Amino acid sequence: MRRSFKDYLLISAKGMAMGAADVVPGVSGGTIAFISGIYEELISTISGVKVSLLYTWKNEGFKAFWKEFNGNFIIALLGGILFSIFTVMRVTNYLLENNPILIWAFFFGLVLASVYYVAKQIPKWTFNVFLFLIIGAGIALYITSLPPLTAAASDLFLFFAGAIAICAMILPGISGAFILVLLGAYKTVSEAAHDFDLKILGIVALGAIFGLLSFSRLLKWLFLNYSTLTLATLTGFIAGSLNKIWPWKRVLETATYGDKSVVLRDESVMPWNFASEPHTIQASVLMLAGFALILILEGLAEKKPVQENAANPNV
What we know:
This protein has about 325 residues and is mainly α. It has one domain. Helix content is about 70%, strand content about 5%. The protein has a two-stranded antiparallel ribbon. Strand 1 and strand 2 form a beta hairpin. Helix 7 (about 100-120) packs parallel to helix 14 (about 280-300) and helix 12 (about 200-225) crosses helix 13. The protein is globular, with a radius of gyration of 20 Å. Residues about 300-315 have low confidence and may be disordered.
């Protein structure tokens, strides 16, 4: 099935949503990719990047290479992500600074609905499925409750920080930006982006490419061989991350990186125990709006089997 220009605009819009999510410490772009129906194709396309593509280009021409690479999909998605990082990110950061409870409430409803959405993909619930769901939730809950490490800036450290963070970005439930905070690399990377430090950005980018190509192959293999247990684990990851984006928090420790303040440690509290105005009614409405949005997107989305998307990324 060939995609139309409208289809690629929709993919770019999904990329924009992924980009906006990835820059927020606590929300995963992988979650957005999953609930928008492009996760399996994204993983399959990334894992398909290999040396043999160059031989395809040499022996069959650029057109064959571009089709095997799924280039139109990558360009449309990457364009949306980059556009979002340089534009929508500003709006997201403004809302987080000025209306944190309301924006987190919307995210919470959205991610909560995504737990339901991903769980629905599981064809049969068995003891092992429940076990892997609990394991996934436990891992995500543990990661999101870890204290941050002290800052480090060696080249090797930054390389692996980029590799680990990019894995989190494509893993539903865990935020790549939050992983950088945990590793103590958020300040270094954010300052490098602000100052256009190409050396640091290049090292992190190389690490990200390494992590992306390696981890995507593992995910593709898991989907092809253990799709049900993989879905259960991803459902757990997303459920376990809900604690991180609960709207009402008591801040325990913060750090200032340039002109940006980042929360290092906090704890979830109930609205009636929140230190200032909890905006309970407005937040509840936005939670329901986020939840409803996912249900609406699910109703509009085409239903495609995981195996078909993984095997045929060009459809």
